Amino acid sequence: MTTDSDTPWLTDQEQRAWRTHLDVSRLLMHQLERDLQPFGLTNNDYEILVNLSEAEDRRLRMSDLATSTLQSKSRLSHQITRMENAGLVRRESCESDRRGLYAVLTDEGWDTMRRVAPHHVASVRKHFIDLFAPESLDALRASLAPVAEHLREHRGSL
Amino acid sequence: MTTDSDTPWLTDQEQRAWRTHLDVSRLLMHQLERDLQPFGLTNNDYEILVNLSEAEDRRLRMSDLATSTLQSKSRLSHQITRMENAGLVRRESCESDRRGLYAVLTDEGWDTMRRVAPHHVASVRKHFIDLFAPESLDALRASLAPVAEHLREHRGSL
DNA sequence: CCGTGAAAGTTGAATAGTGAATTAGTCAGG
DNA sequence: CCTGACTAATTCACTATTCAACTTTCACGG
Question: Most buried among A11, A60, B116, B152, using CB within 10 Å?
Fold first, then answer.
């Protein structure tokens, strides 16, 4: 960061909170990935499917999809190519702006989504949601939301 | 998961908590990575350095390092090779078990660690720790700890 | 001792992710 | 219209990660 040496080290309490957050996010991603594997999807695949299936007309501009999934344009482009080869999405050109492209959910993509979603939800419940008391879940969201906000403002290129 | 269709969908409250957690972990990793870039280190590099510098004799067995950094053996092996080429660590063979290897922090690795750590801590503070009220940080740890525990038990190969 | 199974670690090929450069299209000002 | 700055998206060259196959060593039951 900009300041050099006058930053206080993390207290024990802070250390532990930080390590715990770190461990949870990594282990959780791994676990979700594993639970998705039997369906031939990765976490990233799944997130694209969610975003598209919730979108108007099951389609989104590449840029918007990149923004909402927090990926670089380049990465998304590769990702969509893979999913296109797998038959889950297709690219469609955009009338109003000829530079633009839509990523569109195919019927197969939609079916896959409907088939897999319940299992994924179960997985999220089992390994995350259901491990909290209801109030503590809300406290979690409340304390994390400003962090997300801060990071979104701060974020540069991706 | 094993059960099929009797899993309740996520409530709105749950959805939001889940998305927020997801966003924070991704944005945060990106941000930390960016803050580390000027020093020529990645997040993974840094974590290896932390683990080794805290260890007895600044050395750890490959397996132990893999476990404590939650990586696969293969990935760690590649990672250490890169860091070895960068002069940050070296491999040393193990007397007591000739299959085994130690990853050892070099002097350069140690210096790098001492130089970079304050900046990294500042970064963690700025983008995470300091955004919580002290009690809410502790609440966070408390509610996340069982999740980490659960995931650690559940985890298979990696 | 010997053999068999498991553990420590590495390797290599295939897949995924990154960042800079590139292509193509838009749009405002003159 | 035309030019220069900007945006959408892809491509290229490189680095990182995964997964399975492999080597070496250990441990232990017969």
Answer: A60
